[in-house]
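Entry:
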Amino acid sequence: MATIDEDLAQLERDIRQLKIEYDQYFGGGRKRPPNEIEWRIELVVKRYGERGGEMKSGQRFKFNSLTQSYAKYRDMFRKRTKAKEEGSVVRHYGAAARAIEAQRAHEHPVTPPPAPPVPASAAEIPAFRMTCSQPEDEVDKVGQLYDALVNAKERAGESTGKLSRASFDEFVRKKTAALQKQQNCRDVEYVVETIDGQVKLKALVKS
C-alpha cells in the first residue's frame, strides 16, 4: 500500500499529466478528454479530504496546494470542454470572420505600432513583495508569489522548467518556519526582484 507521500507525489504527476492531455484534446491531438486520469485524481482528493487528520502539517499543506491547483484546472477544462462541444457554429463563423479579416489586411495593410521599449535597467521592473506568517493557511498569497517569480524569470529569459508549485509551497513553508524560529519573529517578507538581469527571491524578517 502506498504511503501518503507516495500518493501525493503521484497526485502531483497526475495533475501535470491531466493538463498535458487536456491541451492535446483541445488542440485536436486526442479524440476524448482524459477522463480516466481525472477520475483517479478525484479518488485521491476525496480519500485524503476525508483523512486529513492522518497527514502531517507539511503533507497537508502540499495536499491543499495540489487540490487548489486541480480545482483551478478543472474549472478551466470544463469551460473549454463545453465551448468545444457547443462551438461548431462558432468555429464556422470564426473561420469566415478570419478569412474576411485576412482579405481586408491584404487590401489595406496597416503598419503595426512600435513595440514598447524593453526596460533598460532592473529598476524599471517593479519588485513583487508578499508578507506571510502562516503560509500553510495563506495558499493564495503563496500562489501570487510563485506566479510573480515565474513571470519575472520568463521576462528575464530564465528557465522555469525546474519550478513546481508544490515544491515551491514546501520551500516557503520551511523557510518561513526557520526564520521565525531563528529570529523570533512572526512575519516574513518575500521579495521577487530583478538585479542586473537576474531574478532574485529574498526572504526578509519583518520587524
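Residues 118-123 have pLDDT under 50 and may be disordered.
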